[in-house]
Amino acid sequence: MKDVLVNVENLTRIFDVSKPWLNRVIEREEKKMLRAVNDVSLEIRRGETFALVGESGSGKSTIAKMIVGLLGLSQGKIDFDGIDLSQPDGAEMRALRQRYQMIFQDPFASLNPRWRVNKIIAEPLRQFDMESSESDRNRRVEELLELVGMSAKDGVKFPHEFSGGQRQRIAIARALSSNPEFIVCDEPTSALDVSVQAQILNLMRDLQDELGLTYLFISHDLSVVRHMANRIGVLYLGRLVEVADGKELFRNPRHPYTKMLLNAIPDLDMTGRKVAPPDGEIPNPINPPSGCTFHPRCPIATEQCKREIPPIRNSDAGSVVCFEAVRA
Amino acid sequence: MSDTLLSVKNLVVEFPTRRGILTAVDNVSFDLERGEVLGLVGESGAGKSITGSAVIGLIEPPGRIAAGTVHLAGQRIDNLPSEKMRRIRGDKIGMVFQDPLSSLNPLYSVAEQLVETILTHKDISKKQARDRAIELLDEVGIPAADLRIDDYPHQFSGGMRQRVVIALALCADPELIIADEPTTALDVSVQSQIVSVLKKMCSEHGASVILITHDIGVIAEVADRVAVLYSGRMAEIGPVRDVIKHPQHPYTKGLMGSIPTITQEGDRLTQIPGSMPRLTDRPPGCAFAPRCEMAMGACHQSHPSEENVGTARVACHLITKMGAVA
Question: Could you tell me which of B212, B217, B133, B224 has the C-alpha nearest to residue B172?
Fold first, then answer.
């Protein structure tokens, strides 16, 4: 049986990007709406790492923010462990909030520069009244610092005394302090150097094994995703175009956009592989193309792709949203 | 026959600070042949960009080139007065920076910026300059170049803007192009487009390129040779294939192991413990010694000299010692 921890159904987020009312009246413009996330459904199983990949503007971070509740939903529904997140209020919601946390991309912006590290890490403990006394709290902070590979003595320092990788460790310790089951990681290593990135990725995997965490891992880097994820969802212009098991996606990509992304990965094995670089760029999401939004860049697009939006086809290997991939 | 365009010898760049002198680039030497692409890789703070700026004489005071020489096509350029250096930069060296938005003037159309640059360096009419500009835009792959040339930078997307910047760098037919993280701000699919444009442009225009990046994937695709910098010093330099496939220096080995690839088996990435030392407290001896698994006594005492190993040049005591044995 599949043990689904987070279930997202028909998630849509629309941003109003129109000019102010007066300008619209004078310039006779319509309201402009941007569909950042369009009808996305996915499920994240307990204990797995589900990765979302896509280029900038594909809606990766918007989905992350909606799942943790930093952004409201325009349509759709998010279930966490069987509870609809729009339903509970007050105390019930606070209890739920303890169970999921987030790690952000920029470790320089996500830590308060005027707080000492132990105060930063203890913040969730204070918020959720998890440790009764000050000394318990300090002990827990020391444990957490050691868990993420730092020294317990580092707690009295300020964030500016640490390098990027160490700060990201502090951010991870903070996320872990409320004993969450589910962590949303929004590009956790893209601000780091490769050798430090390897340390953080290894740490995240070790913590997952040790604490039984579930990750939603967001990245634009396919090779990082391949290393981390059990299952991968590929986003294009706010739509989930393909979901597949990690290794399967790389062995046998089905959506033409996935194929294009895989081709664009630089060849580190120096096989002398020659590939034509992909055509075009991600279109402006305010005026997305008709039908399948990928058709202007797609090498196998047909007339049907220009007119109709392809339905989601599920199979054992995952789901894919493409007329041609299903036919082939 | 080797035809050396740029020759950097024992370059040292220093920044005086209140707490003493910081040596950002320490004794770096390399040659660049005509038509060659040299990759400079390293982590942030390794001195990649400073090396690039030093070559073109753009070190911001109080930083200065404390020792060493830079020769461009046989002419020494590191000690020229600023006005003379400015002419050389314009005529012979093109630059491509990381952020395409900040390297274009938002108040002028792309046509004005390209035409002005061409007219500064070439004695041709405005009409000819405009035709040349359209030709360049066409070469770097901007669709409908004759129409888009009158657009302003904000009307282009990130990838297109970086193409414009490349066209701008090529205006004066430079002999040397310095590309500082040209693809870092771009998406993966656009990145590979820019990489192939860059590759095509240098082979067609016969320009040499110094490609500064932290992304070894990009180096693997474009560069002929690669230099690995660590804490302001050269760790290893050699043909790109040899350095990537058979790294000699323990740092390069660790770096290659820490990159997740799409063909890799196994779960864990090799990790190098710790992080690069700050320039203020660089250890005596080899800068990598505290993180190195194979460090010996000598590594903590003296900085290793660069030795030739096959096609590569490596600075590591292990190589010096082993070379004597093997």
Answer: B133
Q: What is the model's pLDDT at position A270?
A: 62
The SS3 of residue A42 is strand
pTM of the shown model:
0.83
pLDDT in tens, B76-102: 888 888 888 888 888 888 888 887 778
ipTM: 0.76
> For position B229, what pLDDT does the model report?
92
CB-based burial, A204-238: b 16+ in 10 Å, e otherwise: bbebbeeeebbbbbbbbbbbbbbbbbbbbbbbbbb
Question: pLDDT at position B323, please?
Answer: 47
Residue with tokens 């920044």: B15
Say whether B116 sits in a helix, a strand or coil.
helix
Is the domain spanning B4-245 CATH 2.70.98.10? The answer is: no
Distance from CA of A273 to the nearest CA of B (A): 10
Instruction: Give the three-state DSSP class for B125.
Output: coil
B chain contacts of residue A197, beta-carbon cutoff 8 Å: 258
Enumerate domains of chain A plus CATH numbers. Answer: 4-99+180-327 (3.40.50.300)
Q: Helix/strand/coil (H, E, C) string of B171-200? A: CCCCCEEEEECCCCCCCHHHHHHHHHHHHH
Judging contacts by C-beta atoms under 8 Å, the chain A residues touching residue B264 are 227
Contacts of B271 in chain A (CB under 8 A): 195, 198-199, 202
B59 Cβ neighbours under 8 A, 6+ residues apart: B13, B50, B53, B65
Distances (CA, A) of B279 to A263, B20, B232: 39, 11, 8
Contact at CB, A193 and B268, closer than 8 angstroms: no
Residue with token string 């640490």: A162
Helix, strand and coil percent figures for chain A, each rounded to 5 = 35, 20, 40
Q: How many C-beta atoms surround the C-beta of residue B152 within 10 A?
A: 16
Q: Which helix (H) or strand (E) holds A138?
A: helix A134-147
Report yes or no: A260 at the B interface, CB cutoff 8 Å: yes
Angle at alpha carbon of residue B149, lines to B148 and B153, rounded to 5°: 85
A199 touches chain B (CB under 8 A): yes
The reply to whether residue A264 touches residue B254, judged by beta carbons under 8 angstroms, is: no
Where do the structural domains in chain B lie, given as residue ranges?
4-245, 246-262+269-275+284-326
Alpha-carbon gap, residue A236 to A206, rounded angstroms: 31
What is residue B325's predicted lDDT score, i.e. its pLDDT? Answer: 39
Which residue type does B66 have? A
